[in-house]
Specification:
Number of strands: 14
Order of helices and strands: HEEEEEEEEEEEEEE
Helix content: under 10%
Organism: Hoeflea halophila
Shape: rod-shaped
Radius of gyration: 74 Å
Structural class: mainly beta
Keywords: Signal
Largest sheet: 2 strands, antiparallel
Protein name: YXWGXW repeat-containing protein
Length: 197
């Protein structure tokens, strides 16, 4: 292509020189004839990939998950407690001798006459109530077992976390027309001498 351009430039320069030459050269014998030609530009369609949307990384926060757990907790520990037991009593009735049997003298009337007589006085008794202790008071020590209860509380099953998601870029193929060879103009020799007349 460069060689043809060189030839065309040489011919163009020669024709320009002849066109400004003296009229004495007009009407001479034809040696060669040239015609000006135009070469249109050459285009072609190419396909290329373009980024419609760039890729990136998106961070998404996943909240924590919670659950309920039931556990056994100590309400009060085991301990020894002293307990006082009062005495057990009851009332009993008992006959007691108030005055023992005795012998004494007393005046009596016997056949109308005052007579001193020796007499026996029997013992005298009476019933009296009294309180007796059936079981004496005492202190006993009792062991109290520990007391437990069940309690429900909220616990973290899975903590919150951040997850990174990679987003790929969006690419598409587009067609584009490009110029392969620009338009050009030049001179070509006309074949056959009869065309120059």
């Amino acid at each position: 292509m460069s060689e043809l351009s060189t030839i065309c430039r040489t011919i163009s320069a020669t024709l320009v020189a002849l066109s400004v030459a003296s009229p004495a050269f007009a009407g001479g014998k034809t040696l060669a004839c040239y015609q000006k030609v135009h070469q249109p530009a050459v285009y072609k369609t190419i396909h290329e990939q373009v980024v419609v949307r760039p890729g990136g990384v998106v961070h998404k926060t996943i909240p924590a998950r919670y659950g309920q757990v039931t556990e056994k907790v100590l309400v009060s520990p085991a301990q020894v407690v002293a307990r006082h037991i009062p005495a057990v009593t009851r009332t009993v009735h008992q006959t007691v001798m108030v005055r023992p049997k005795s012998v004494g003298w007393e005046w009596r009337h016997v056949h109308g006459k005052k007579t001193l007589c020796k007499v026996v006085h029997p013992a005298q008794y009476e019933t009296r109530a009294r309180t007796v202790v059936v079981h004496p008071a005492r202190t006993v020590h009792e062991r109290m077992p520990a007391r437990y209860a069940h309690r429900t509380r909220t616990v973290v099953v899975e903590p919150a976390r951040t997850v990174a998601h990679k987003i790929p870029p969006v690419i598409k193929t587009v067609a584009r027309t490009v110029e392969v060879q620009p338009a050009s103009a030049g001179w070509v020799q006309v074949s056959g001498k009869h065309r120059c007349h």
